[in-house]
Amino acid sequence: MALPAMIQALSTLLPCLYLGLVVLCWSAFSAADETRLLAARRVLLLTLLAAHTGLLAARFAAVPGMPFLGGFAALSPLALSIAALHAWFARVERGQAASAAITYGVAFLLQLASSAFAPLEVVEAHDRPPLFYALHVGSALIASAALAISGIDGVLYLALYRQMRRRRFGPLFDALPSLDQLARRMRRAAGFACLLLAVGVNAGIWWAHRADVPGFSYRDPFVLALIALMLHFGLVAASGFIPFLTARRASLAAVSGLALLLVALGYSLLPRSFHWVN
Amino acid sequence: MGELSPDPRLLLVGLSHRSAGLEARERHAVQPVELEARLASLLGLPAVQEAFLLSTCNRTEVLVATAEPEAARAHVERLVFPSARPDELYAHTGVRALLHVFRVAAGLDSLVLGETQILGQMKEAMEAARRAKALGSELFPLLSQALSAAKRVHTETPLGRGTLSVAQVGVDVAAQVFGDFGRVQALIVGAGETGLLVARHLRERGVERLLFANRTVERAAQAAAEFGGLSLGLEELPRVIEGTHLIVACVDGARHLVTPRTLRGGGLQRRDRPLLCIDLSVPRAIDPAVAALDGVLYYDLDDLAGVVEKNRGKRRESDEESAQILIAELHKYLGRREFQAAAPQLKALPERFERVREEVLDGLFGPASSPEALRLAHELTKRLLDATFTVFKAGVRAGRSSEALEAEYKQYLDDL
């Protein structure tokens, strides 16, 4: 099969696979039965990860420059990172069907947008990008996925905490992981994100200096936001050791960090940002 | 029971929480050590060929295989239920007895709907009956099928999900906060029956540290010795709040032993996890005002009763599913049993067919039958025999329609 045709086929297939996974996880969540369709969920997840890796490999082979630049094209590896990281972080925990339904739902939306709007011919440079640049993009994407997972777990923690404070034992109480597990996962994802963000930001800065990227400045709001995010999520990751920064406050911080990430990403897509890629 | 052709050899007599009070149940309970002797006595009764006796805190039931159910009933009642009033006892025969046994095994007749303890109790009773040589070709397959139907009900329906005990629900709520209890210090206020039950559940979940606070420190010390933990008096409560993650109060007659003031000294602002307070006492031993404190999750009996009721509702929802499984299993059992009953006649059929074939061949062709005629006669005999078996099996199935069993099941439930 020619690469463009394969990319086309996989781009169409992937949102369907994500949606299927969301439906299976949701059915386990709504039935409050963790084991429901477990084998089918695992098979579908593995198929999805394989198909998605195949799509990215095909794009890498087909597109002469950096294949994941441009807003919508970047959403696809972000979706894959979210799915893969969630599968890894939540692999042995009770109540993972519930958080999986929500997290894979986010990944589904990202992949759907990418499949629908990302152009095939994303070409910035005709040569393969330098290693530092690839490191910058790759680690920033995975860090964003980890930040998203941390933020989603923060939202789930706050929702479950609120329900328990109101002394209601609704569907979230039945289906979500425990408060402790959510807090642990949120901090683990935040730590992972902080580390990768440090690598990604530093590699990007190094590359920006080297390639003399026009408009790059340390005072650029996007650069400042990324550095703030790195520190912010570092604080979330270490919150277990900081008095007064309770799990609930750390969850609030993770959620606000997620909001800041979305704002920063939105800003980076504006033409006025040096980070904008046409 | 007409069309269902009930098994006239089965009789079940018993009393349970549905028909008799606690006192009557206590009076007629049979201790495990007495089981074999009692079964031997049952086997000594006229007309009783096989016997099974199940005795739990909620029921004592005798199932016998008998040629004369009416006579056997009187004997069984005199032997096992000598002082029971007629309205405390129930008796079922035939398909009704089967339905009852299947429902009991599945926990559908239990006080706590869907509990699985009954499965173990039935297995133990079966083991005792086997040792007493009281089980034979009638009761053993029946009880085995009932157990396998019960297992299906528990694995394929939500019947057994969600606990119905307040103490366990309390621990389940704690599990939703802490996940595993490996790094949890639990303080149990009150060392009575409920407190010990909570301690047992917490220990089973692997709680790291247990503290028992009680008015009588000796009682707390006993509990601490039993479950491994520390004991203290009620006046020491504020001192231990700081490192405690879970407080469960199960005290009688003590009002507001734990107040917002007690908790404020426990560093609520500094702790990573919320402090979980569960009050199982009447009147409440934890002041409900603690619920307003930041970082505290508080639940009392009413909150937990809501969860128990929700679980009960979920179990009831599975009634229809459970009934379908029981009926399917019963159908299977009855078909197999009927087939086994006809086995001697069926076994004799091939020989009979062959004899008729030889007679016909002799009559038509004498001793010098042609090979073609012999082959034709053999083939015809074989096919007719196959067709007879097929028609018989279909007849067995049709004779025990699931619809008829379902109707009988509904009638049985209405009569409960």
Largest sheet of chain B: 6 strands, parallel
> How large is the share of residues in beta strands of chain A?
under 5%
Structural class of chain B: alpha/beta
Q: Over all CA atoms, what is the radius of gyration of chain B? A: 31 Å
Spans of chain B of at least 5 consecutive residues whose pLDDT stays below 50 are 1-7
N-to-C series of helices and strands of chain B: EHHEEHEHHHHEHEHEHEHEEHHHHH
Description:
The complex is a heterodimer of chains A (278) and B (416). Chain A has 278 residues and is an all-alpha fold. Helix content of chain A is 74%, strand content 0%. In chain A, helix 3 (71-89) packs across helix 5 (131-165). Chain B is 54% helix and 13% strand. Chain B has helices at 22-28, 35-43, 69-80, 94-106, 117-131, 139-156, 166-178, 193-204, 217-227, 237-241, 260-264, 301-317, 319-341, 343-365, 371-399, 402-415; strands at residues 10-16, 48-55, 59-66, 90-93, 185-189, 209-214, 230-233, 246-249, 275-279, 296-299. The model of chain B is unreliable at 1-7 (pLDDT under 50). Chain B has two domains: 10-162 and 323-339 and 407-415, 2-Layer Sandwich (Beta Polymerase, domain 2), CATH 3.30.460.30; 166-304, 3-Layer(aba) Sandwich (Rossmann fold). In chain B, the strands form two sheets. In chain B, strands 7-6-5-8-9-10 form a six-stranded parallel beta sheet. Chain A binds chain B through residues 33, 93-94, 160-161, 164-165, 167, 169, 173, 177-181, 183, 239-240, 243-244, 246-248, and chain B through 158, 173, 175-180, 269-274, 291, 295, 297-299, 303, 306-307, 310.
Keywords:
heterodimer; A: 278 residues; mainly alpha; 9 helices; flat; B: 416 residues; alpha/beta; Beta Polymerase, domain 2; Rossmann fold; 2 domains; 6-stranded parallel sheet; 4-stranded antiparallel sheet; 16 helices; 10 strands; 54% helix; disordered N terminus
Secondary structure: elements and pairs:
The complex is a heterodimer of chains A (278) and B (416).
Chain A: H1 3-30, H2 38-62, H3 71-89, H4 96-117, H5 131-165, H6 171-175, H7 179-211, H8 221-238, H9 247-268
Helix pairs in contact in A: 1-2, 1-4, 2-3, 3-4, 3-5, 5-7, 5-9, 7-8, 7-9, 8-9
Chain B: E1 10-16, H1 22-28, H2 35-43, E2 48-55, E3 59-66, H3 69-80, E4 90-93, H4 94-106, H5 117-131, H6 139-156, H7 166-178, E5 185-189, H8 193-204, E6 209-214, H9 217-227, E7 230-233, H10 237-241, E8 246-249, H11 260-264, E9 275-279, E10 296-299, H12 301-317, H13 319-341, H14 343-365, H15 371-399, H16 402-415
Helix pairs in contact in B: 4-6, 4-13, 5-6, 6-13, 7-8, 13-16, 14-15
